[in-house]
Design brief:
The chain is an all-alpha fold. The chain is built from four helices and no strands. Helix 1 packs parallel to helix 4 and helix 3 packs antiparallel against helix 4.
């Protein structure tokens, strides 16, 4: 005869693991999207940056929704293991019976590695975009006869210098 409590625990742990797999898949998709964005930035293919950013935002929104579902999946596991609902995955893995302790620990390591890699790539892309933006802005300033070494306000925005412009602004 099967133990109903054990069956519930197995189902709850399985649901949690499935949700963690879904998060890993989304993180891999996000990593791919950031790699694509990186290539677009590096090659100067700015035509597709808007679409790339939109794709990234879509994955991030899916991650938010999936994270909420993961929290819902973790609650019954925590209840069955006698843990508070906000227990981190590392502690859930320690308290889980075999083989789930190893499965959850592998999920935790994979998620930790993926978020670290995503953080680095995101930071690099942001820095490259900022450098590209400044290069374009400096080029436009030269076309508009802005003095070399344009200045910035205390808030970090460029000071608008009046003068002769190659391109007249309506306004």
């Amino acid at each position: 005869m099967t133990d109903p409590k054990n069956d519930r625990a197995q189902l709850a742990l399985s649901n949690l693991s499935t949700g963690l797999w879904r998060i890993q898949e989304l993180l891999e998709t996000l990593l791919y999207q950031l790699e694509v964005q990186s290539v677009l930035i590096e090659t100067g293919r700015s035509r597709w940056l808007g679409r790339s950013t939109s794709d990234i935002e879509t994955v991030i929104e899916s991650l938010r929704e999936t994270e909420l579902l993961r929290a819902v999946d973790a609650t019954p596991v925590c209840d069955l293991l006698g843990l508070p609902a906000d227990t981190p995955l590392s502690e859930i893995a320690k308290a889980a019976p075999a083989p789930w302790d190893h499965v959850l620990e592998e999920h935790r390591v994979a998620l930790s590695n993926a978020t670290h890699e995503l953080s680095q790539l995101s930071r690099t892309n942001g820095e490259m975009l900022e450098i590209s933006y400044r290069a374009v802005q400096d080029t436009l300033d030269r076309f508009n006869h802005a003095p070399e070494g344009a200045t910035y306000t205390a808030r970090g925005s460029r000071e608008n210098a009046r003068g002769h412009h190659l391109i007249d602004h309506v306004g």
